[in-house]
Every structure is written in structure tokens, then in C-alpha cells.
Amino acid sequence: MNRLDTRHDDVSQAPRGGRRSFDWTPLVYALVVLGSTSPARASGDAVPRAEPWIGTWATAAQAFIPGRLETFDNQTLRLIVHTSAGGPKARIRISNTFGDHPLLIGGAHIGRRTAAADIDPASDRALTFDGRSVVTIPARAMVVSDPVELDVPALADVAVSLFLPSATAATTSHLLALQTSYVSKGPGDFTAAAAFPSASTIDTWPFLTGVDVVAEAEGAAIVAFGSSTTDGDGSTSDANRRWPDVLAERLQNGQGPRLGVLNQGIIGNRLLSDSPPETRARFGEALGQAGLTRFERDVLAQAGVRYVLLALGVNDIVFPGSFTPASEMLSAEKLIAGYRQVIERAHDKGIRVIGTTIPPLENAIFPAPAVEGHTPEKEQLRQRLNYWIRSGAAFDAVVDFDEVLRDPSHPTRLLPAYDSGDHLHANDAGYVASGKAIPLALFEGR
Asked: Where are the domains positioned within the chain?
């Protein structure tokens, strides 16, 4: 398994930037061969100014959970996503990151949703890939569609339809979509159907990992890079109450800059380690690659990213003794070294990094089977990390989620009014409070 060597006392002993072996050749091939092209220019012609693309919606690619692999055959998916920023043009990203075989897309469309699985027919746009309506995505690769003229509103539901003409296993998906999407009734390509003939619903996002728009000249995107507390675990489905959603609403409705907000949270994700072997029978590889590994794909490769809100580290604390051997308990110094690697790699690309403190863990319970995730030793580690995050001056700014969510009368536990019930994840009210605690001034004057 490709994972960080946790035997060292200091993560900084890993290669600079925490990079590990990953074959980017298929990705480069897909982007060069299948990406959009520009018309040929005569020698001496002025080079046209690149359009300012930014992400308006994104999700992190995950591997499937054993026993829950979704399969489709000659069917159409209508996937619903909620935008942050708006724009006059759109394009999508399709991922086969965890596929062992090429992924055939027989057609793709995008349009504005009206209700359930239906779209406004006037907004329907066929998508192409290097001018072709059909695309084959190599194993372990992704593609970006050609752009289309489409008025994409801010804070609106957009439907992306993908036709899968042959038997297809969703080996790459996002599992905690907290959004209802639709699968066509019967065989055939229904990507252009205004009234979608849905036979069933799904609460995942197979293959689709991004929607980009052309923004204003000063447009940019913010990536929320975290675990289940960023992914929105504990919030209400179809309500867009994750804290990144709340931040997006404030940016679009307020007087501040109208930036895209991209949610790259993964349940169970850790900063320093991949999905643990001890959970493979239950979760497979679905808890994701280490944050240091996926940082390139899920942050640096996003369109127009200028800010990262880093919310990883809680699972590095709670997993030892719960899902992994207690002997894997980490030191604060090792986690701090991991944070420093993220900061350095982002700064190398001109990206500002905003740190977030780790909220309380007391009485945290993981269900089915119930596992206690909190100990006095883990609480001491959380406090040490939060002290460093607040006072270490390593981040460009800090948002104190711990202060927002803790019970003032019992600071090692979540405020009951913000507790989803497992004493680890916030509910809608807690995520709203977290999203409102992020100063919009952090994103001004870039």
C-alpha cells in the first residue's frame, strides 16, 4: 500500500513536499489529448488572453466501499450539484482516478435544474471533449470538457447528465454527496431529456468531480480541504448546510468578493496516512489517500484556486486505538511537520493557507460497531495542535472552529445545540455557525 512511513519521528524526513510515487502520465495524456484546443494562429498573431476559469463546485474522488459498488449498464445518470460562483461559460471534470479500466462516456450534457431530475430545456447544453461527444478516459486519469456558453447562476442547482452505454462500475465516486441524484429508467441516452425518466435515486456522485465557470477578471476559488467535518457529515441531505456551503452563500450575498468555494472533504481522511489496512474490509480504500498525497490533485489542480482552508488532522488523532493500533499514536511534532508541508507547497503556487483548529472530541463515537474515539491522551494532543495552530504564525490566517463549536461550560465537548448526536460531527446549526465564523476579509485584496 502506498502510504507515508509513520516510523519516523518527523514527517519532514519524507521527500520535500511529502510527495510520493504517483503516475501522472495518464492524467497528462488525458488533458493533452482530450482537453479543449484552440484554433491555429498565423505567425505573428497576438496570443489571446486566457479566460479566467475558476471552480464553482467540486468534490473529491473516492474509491468504492466493498459491497456497495454501484453499477450501471446502458443508463444515464443525472447528477445534481449546487454552485457557488456564477459565470457565462461552463465546463466539467470527469474522473476515472480509481478505475483499473478505461471509462467510456457515451454523451454528456449540462443544464439548470428546475425540480427533482428535470431541467430547463432552454439551458440544455451538449458537452464535448476535444470536439467529440464520446470520450474514453484512461484508467487512473481524468478529463476536462470543452467549454459551453451557459449562464450558470450563483448558488443554483445544476444538472450534469452522463450516458454510460456499456456495463460500468462506479469505481470512482464521491460517497457522502448529501444530494439526491438520479438514474434513468430503462436503457438509452437521456442526457438531453428535459423531463428525465428516472427509475431510481442515488446519494453519491459517480465520476463527476468538478464544474468550472468563467469568472470576473479578479475571480478566484477557495478549496475547503478536510475530512468528514468538511464533507458535511451530520448535516441535512439536499439542504446545502455544510460549512463550505454557508461560506459560499456569504461570499455571494454579501459585499465581499464573489469567489468559488470547492469542497474537497473525504470521510475518514487523514493528513499523514492513507485508508488504514485495519478498515479495508469495511471501507476499502474509500477513506482516501493521505492529505499530503491528494493535495496535488484536489487542491493545486483546481481551477483558479487562491486560498485553502485546511481542516485535516482530527482523524490522525482519533484513529489510533479506535480503528488502528494504539501504537500508531502520533506526536504533535509529526502532525505539525505535515501542516508545514501543506503550507510550503501551497505557497510555492502563490496560494494562501488558512488553518482551522480541531473541535472537541469528548465522547466521540463511531457507529456500527460503536468505537470510542476519545482518550485523555488524544485530548492533550488536540490541545497542543490547536495551541500551535493559533499561535505558531505558520498559517496565513486562522479560523477557530474549536472556539465556535465547543461547550463553554465543558470545553472538551461539542456544544449540545451544535452536536449531530455522535459528539464528533456538527449538525446544521453547528455548520452554519462555523461557516459564519470565517471572516470574509480574509479573501479581500488578493
From this structure: 11-15+218-443, 61-210
